[in-house]
Design goal:
OB fold (Dihydrolipoamide Acetyltransferase, E2P); 25 strands; 50% helix
């Protein structure tokens, strides 16, 4: 083999080594300090010297030396990325502080009943705690507040903004498959949020960031020009198509785009960059401009569009990756375009290793890889079967992008569109025309407002046609498939089989020769792997799992039997706001674990934080029955925000004390079910049902919001409340979990379901102290995220989301280990 003969293979291996190094750095956080950091640096320098020597002598040792070098670089870069500087604003987490910073993005304002809810992304310039002096600080925050009018909150990029409020670390719902909000913000340089409440927000105008201000002004021009000639929701949708974002969009339209696989069009991505580049390249071709001139114009157009979209990190990544790749393809250098993609991926991960865990980067990189490696294979196969070129090209591109991103889509969204191929053939061309026409309309409106308005009116008509077609496709039977998350080994096997046809004949020949030469070793390896997976599956198949989902300030618990049957206890929810916990948190969690049907839902009572999410679940999944407390069907309809005549309400039926349910060896007992008539028509926490689950020697007690009075009544009835695991009542409120009840239950574990930084102070200190006095191991969804118990009826295994979460590891980075988070 000649030296330097396989650059593409070399770049692929370096990218894999770098990614594995980043994962290793995550696994060992925060170990690379002190003597371990010195050892890492010495090995890194040694591998660098060996690589240089091997390159100089042109030996085959260069390749493994470079692999080791990039592996070590990945681990070290991740370690460096998570260590915050000593003056980072996040050190004041939990305190009320005065914060000053420079506006780095557009201020957002949403009108409510009393004024406007506003938010400002800021690069922090200073902070003051209490009556102390202002001190310099670094990092970024998003400042949330409220103003009476939009005018008093108005700010432009570069302005200085100051206010006082509580500073909190960023967090989202900590469940597997949930998009990690804290990670997304951290990669953008934002490490905390500031909630100002009723404190005044002071804006000081500054003349800075002229390019970003110009871009913001152009976007505002587009928005205002559209709002003059079309309905607000149409203007919001077209603005999102042009520049990304979801503000003001019709939820039904977003759902239709999601089902049909077109949702990526609402975020500026490589497809937008390629569309702009293709349009400019087409114009250059018509004008017969020289290739060099065309390349300059295309590059300029891409840069200008990225500027218009705000130069936010996802847009910059799409511009770099999509722009370079498009130019290479346009110049007929397909192999070079692959090299560019790999080198761009290497550079981006070296610069920001957290991108490896960022959904935007994952989808952009994998979709582009599918376009370069898989689409040509699919296109040749379709053309060989005499499929017209236009159809085969569209099918191959769509199929390549869908397959390349399938494991990521399954992990985050649990759904894969079946009608995506048809939608991309029928709807995407319309949307492409709409995007180009929309960009042109805004430019025309700068010079000729009337003509620009007419063009924008045409955009509105095109949007209506595209929306109707999308809704029709989304309504087709089997338009979307629910796909549970792939295990790690399945992801590796999937990509190995997927990209195998894209390998060159030489690669495939060498692989076949290797397998023939090492057939015995390969066979033993596959046999060992198969045996390991079979043993693991058999062990897991005998276990019952109980998942306490992080539903914020609400309760939701999923129980899965050894044969895969699922039961839900409460569904979470929020008392205020339009965010649907059932649709956005609980349902994705169920789908993540492959739940396609619920045998039953058991609701402890009708309060929104327990029952509201059930409405979305009943409309999305087959459910055998919904067992409730005795508050009446109307109370549950209001809580779930369902109409009085909604047919799903027919599944509701109250339970009575003493009822038992059997399912795959699991016994569910109703220990407490106060009826409204018996309790003086009480509809509060006193109405909470109590359920006891038994599986072999393991038992779980689900208490809802049961009060201390209810606990006393339960004990007076002689109910057997002994439990291995106690779901601590009422989110750890002092009104529950009495001393007598704890003595009777005698749990080994207590799970507290509470929202992080909640305004109720849950869990209360006295309840935590009481549990500790009884030597109960406490697990909390606000800190640990989702908590999962697995039992075969004798032994009990516990896992938490926090153990696997990068965000949790970020909070435990070197800065926090040395100083501790301030609270």
């Amino acid at each position: 083999m000649r030296y330097g003969q396989h650059p593409e293979r070399f770049f692929v291996s370096l990218l894999l080594a770098l990614a594995l190094g980043i994962l290793a750095g995550l696994a060992f956080l925060p170990e690379l300090q002190g003597w371990t950091g010195t050892l890492w640096l010495l090995v890194l320098l040694g591998s660098l010297l060996l690589a240089a020597l091997a390159v100089w002598r042109q030996t085959a040792l260069a390749w493994p030396c470079f692999l080791l070098l990039f592996f070590l670089l990945g681990a070290g870069r991740l370690q460096q990325a998570v260590i915050l500087p000593a003056d980072d604003i996040s050190r004041f987490a939990g305190r009320t502080v005065n914060v000053a910073g420079r506006l780095t993005g557009e201020m957002k304002a949403v009108q409510d009943a009393t004024g406007f809810r506003v938010s400002y992304p800021l690069a922090v310039t200073g902070v003051r705690h209490g009556r102390g002096e202002w001190e310099q600080a670094s990092g970024g925050v998003v400042l949330y507040g409220h103003t009476a009018t939009r005018e008093e909150a108005e700010a432009r990029i570069g302005d200085l903004v100051q206010s006082a409020g509580e500073l909190r670390l960023i967090h989202g719902y900590q469940n597997p498959g949930q998009i990690d909000t804290a990670l997304l913000r951290r990669e953008e340089g934002i490490t905390a949020n500031v909630f100002t409440g009723k404190n005044k927000i002071v804006v000081k105008a500054e003349e800075s960031a002229p390019l970003l201000r110009l871009a913001a002004g152009v976007r505002q021009h587009y928005r205002e020009a559209m709002q003059q000639v079309m309905p607000p929701q149409d203007a919001a949708a077209i603005f999102a198509l042009l520049f990304g974002g979801y503000d003001g969009l019709d939820p039904e339209l977003v759902e239709s785009f999601t089902i049909t696989g077109l949702i990526h069009i609402l975020s500026v991505s490589g497809s937008h960059i390629s569309l702009v580049a293709a349009a400019i390249a087409g114009i250059c071709l018509l004008l017969r401009l020289p290739m060099a001139c065309s390349a300059v114009l295309v590059t300029t157009a891409i840069g200008f569009y990225a500027l218009l979209a705000g130069f936010v990190p996802p847009v910059v990544r799409a511009a770099v990756m999509g722009g370079l790749t498009f130019l290479a393809l346009a110049l007929g250098r397909e192999r070079d375009s692959r090299h560019i993609l790999l080198l761009t991926g290497l550079a981006m991960l070296l610069y920001s290793p957290l991108l490896l865990f960022h959904i935007s980067f994952e989808l952009s990189f994998l979709a582009t890889a599918g376009l370069l490696y898989l689409a040509p294979v699919f296109h040749r196969w379709l053309r060989a079967r005499r499929i017209p070129a236009a159809i085969s090209l569209g099918l191959s591109i769509t199929l390549a992008a869908q397959l390349a991103t399938l494991p990521v889509l399954a992990w985050y969204f649990q759904r894969v569109s079946i009608v995506a191929l048809l939608a991309n053939l029928v709807v995407t061309p319309l949307l492409d025309v709409l995007i180009l026409l929309g960009l042109l309309s805004g430019l025309v409106a700068l010079l000729l407002p009337t003509a620009g308005g007419m063009l924008f009116a045409g955009c509105s008509l095109l949007l209506g046609l595209a929306s109707e077609m999308t809704r029709w496709l989304a309504a087709l039977p089997f338009s979307v498939a629910v796909v549970p998350a792939f295990p790690f080994w399945a992801v590796l096997l999937f990509y190995l089989l997927l990209f195998l046809p894209a390998l060159s004949a030489e690669w495939r020949g060498q692989l076949a020769a290797f397998l023939r030469r090492e057939s015995l070793a390969a066979g033993l390896l596959l046999l060992g792997l198969g045996t390991f997976l079979a043993i693991g599956h058999c062990m897991a198949s005998r276990e019952l799992t109980v998942h306490f989902i992080d539903a914020g300030q609400g309760d939701a618990a999923l129980v899965m039997t050894p044969s895969g049957k699922a039961v839900l206890f409460d569904a979470g929810g929020k008392r205020m706001g339009s965010f649907d916990i059932g649709e956005r948190v609980t349902l994705p969690y169920l789908r993540h674990y492959g739940v396609r049907r619920l045998e039953a839902v058991f609701l402890t009572h009708a309060h929104e934080d327990h029952a509201q999410g059930c409405g979305a679940i009943l409309h999305a999944l087959p459910v055998g029955a919904v067992y409730t407390a005795g508050e009446g069907r109307d109370a549950y309809a209001r809580s779930m925000r369902l109409g009085d005549n909604d047919p799903v309400l027919s599944r509701l039926q109250p339970v009575t004390r003493g009822q038992r349910f059997e399912l795959d060896g699991l016994t569910i007992e109703v220990l407490h079910a106060p009826q409204a008539a018996e309790e003086g028509d009480k509809r509060g926490n006193e109405a909470s049902n109590v359920y006891r689950l038994r599986y072999g020697d393991a038992s779980f007690l689900i208490t809802g919001d049961l009060t201390a009075e209810g606990e006393a009544g339960l004990l007076a009835c002689g109910a057997d409340v002994r439990a291995t695991v106690l779901k601590v009542a009422h989110h750890g409120s002092r009104t529950s979990t009495s001393e007598a009840f704890l003595q009777a239950a005698h749990p080994a574990y207590g799970v507290i379901c509470a929202g992080r930084d909640n305004s109720f102070g849950h869990p209360h200190a006295e309840v935590v102290a009481r549990l500790q006095q009884h030597e109960v191991k406490i697990l909390r969804t606000d800190r640990d995220g989702a908590v999962v118990f697995a039992t075969d009826g004798r032994r009990l295994r516990i896992s938490t989301y926090r153990e696997q979460s990068l965000t949790a590891r970020l909070e435990q980075s070197v800065l926090y280990q040395q100083t501790g988070p301030v609270s």
